[in-house]
Every structure is written in C-alpha cells, then in structure tokens.
# Entry
Amino acid sequence: MLPLRPKFAIIFWLLILFLSACQTNTSPVAPTSEPTTVIPATPTLILPTKILASQTPSATPSPTAVMTALADFSNLESELIEGVDWFILVQDANSDEILFERNPDTSFPPASLIKIPTAMAVLSILEDQGRTLEELKTYGISDRNFDSLLEAMVVYSEESAAEALEYFARGDNQLRKKLDAWGLTNTKYDPRTSTSSELLASLELLNTGAALNEENSQYLLNLMGSYTENDQILLGKLLDQLPDCAFLNKRGTMLGPTIVSDMGILMCGERGWYLVVAGTPAVDSQATFEDIQASIEAFAVAFASLVK
# Structure
C-alpha cells in the first residue's frame, strides 16, 4: 500500500487533468430546444397598372375614406321601392370599382337596352366588310341605308329598324359570334334577355374602343347622346342635377311584362361612370310602371348628389 501523502498527490493530479479536459470542451452551443427566430420578408405591394389616360395619380385614400364612400353609395338603396325586382350595376369608369349593384348577373328582359349590343354587332360586321362610315349612308337593307336604320333604332327605338338590323346581323350566325367574342354570352334574342353586368360591359367596350374602331365607336356614342323629347326622364334626371356633364344613354320600357330601364355613360370632365338600372314588378306586387319610373328618377337624383 502507498503511503498516504503520495496517494493524495495522485488523486490531486488526476483531478487537475480532468478539469483541464472539461475546460477544453466547454465552447458555447445554442440549446437545441430554443426555436430559431425567422424575420419574414417585407411583402411586395403590387399596384394596379391600368390607369385611364384622363386619370392623374392621386394619394391613396385612407381606409376610413373608402368605407365612407361605399357607405354613401349604399344609401342609394333607400331610393328603390319595395315590391320590385331590381337589376342594377353602377361602376366607376376611371377605377373600374363597382359602386352599387342589385342582381347584376340575373337575366331579365332588357327591352330596348339590347339595341346597343345589336348596334355594336351590326357596325362590327360592317367593319369586317370594309365599309366606311360614309358608305353607311348609301349602303343598306330593307330599302333603307344603315345610317338611317341605326339612328331609328338607337335614337327613336323604332322596332321595325331593330328587327331589320337584327335579321342582317344574324346572317351566318355573326350576331351570336360577335356577342360571344365580347363575353356577352347571356345576351340573347329568343326571347330577348340580358344581365345588367353584360349591358354595362357593352357600354365599357364601346366607350374604351375595345369593340369597334374609333370612327364607329364615336358614331354610336353620338347617337346615344342625340337629344330627344324624353331625355329628362329616368336616368336623364342626372342632367337636371349635373348640367355641365354629358349623359349618353339608351332607355328601355315595356308593358308586357312591365319593364322600366335605362343605361348610359355619365361623363363629368375627366370623370366617368357606367350605369344600368332596370326594374320589373315582383310576383304579386302592386308596383306600377309609374312607381318604378319615379323610383329610378329618385335614384338618379341621389346618385347625382354623390357625384357633386
């Protein structure tokens, strides 16, 4: 057996060697149970690129301002009487924002509103034939030139002119092909039906020149802006309140079934709006033609006050 003192010396040196080894391997290591924090990348804001030529960039409105504007337009609801099936769509032409809608994709008999898509199809077919605007005054069908037929249909809602132009456009199924190419697949003629969204689309196609060449687009817009003695009724009330604006429109009315409708393009300086408004009495409703007309006119006055 070793003497006691040497034994303690051996233990002491072994302890020193152990401690030295521990210090050599004590580099800090992140605990595996601690989750690694990942800072997410800042999201990229994609702004719309479609800006009308007449539109100048402006500061982005605050969420409060946007909600207030939408609330203002929702107040138009109070001008629509009960007991009526409404088909309405109102869109800002500068921003494409939908401002108000009621059953926008529900089909209904549009009365004479369908004459605008009809006129567009006729003019597009004549474009395909290479016909100029001047030739419309000398070239025609049913012993009438196209210029007089289009004016009679669009300005005065002459049904015989509409029937002649529709018959012409139906040749080789061109009318259907034109409407389908423009996305107006629910605008039909047997019987005549459409939706407020497709009727509004026809206004936008016409106003932006997406359906016709510039000459024919302006020609049809001029017909819609032609003065008639009934221009102050229905949505025409807009001009009573906004005398410095222009309203290019087409009215449509029927008595069997009762339909009261109007659609058009309201232009006030560099700002514009597309409007389609139509109403028919609901089932078992006592609403009359005059009731619906008065409601549409109140709607127009209320919208004009918002435009102001």
